[in-house]
Amino acid sequence: MKARGLGVSLACLAWLAAGSAPAQPPNPVEPLSNGLLLTMTAADVMARFGRPSSDNRSVGGGIAYPDFSLTFDQRGIEIWHATLKRPGVRLSSGIAVGSRRADVERTVGGSDHVVVGQYDLDFRYDSDGIVREIRISPSEGVFKPVGKSPSPGR
Prior knowledge:
It contains 3 helices and 7 strands; from the N terminus they run ααββββαβββ. The chain has helices at residues 2-19, 42-49, 101-108, and strands at 54-55, 62-64, 68-72, 79-84, 113-116, 119-125, 131-138. A hairpin with a 6-residue loop joins strand 1 and strand 2. The chain is globular, with a radius of gyration of 21 Å.
């Protein structure tokens, strides 16, 4: 009888341990405050945000909106770079154009160039140390869906 009770106790402990896995730290970049996901295709972006203010994909460029611009691969499937150009679009951590250098350092652990998970972040500042542009690139070749593990071999 003692062995059965021990087995039940161990099973309960295993179940509790599995349910209390440490929470992963929040993603400091996605989702962006405007709903842009870095895994969207050009068609997805235009469906969500409408016609861009400029569309230079046919000559190897990207699409631009007043607050942000995106560079895609030749097929318009993968975002290669996203650039936040004006206040209003924030990273999920709250950092945006208009943030102070000290806030960037405290939030992402660096100020000019920092890699955070799958994100390669470049911050450009004005002479007063205020963010004037944020460039987001994939640190591992392509952006992966938020909350998904990288595929083997990618």
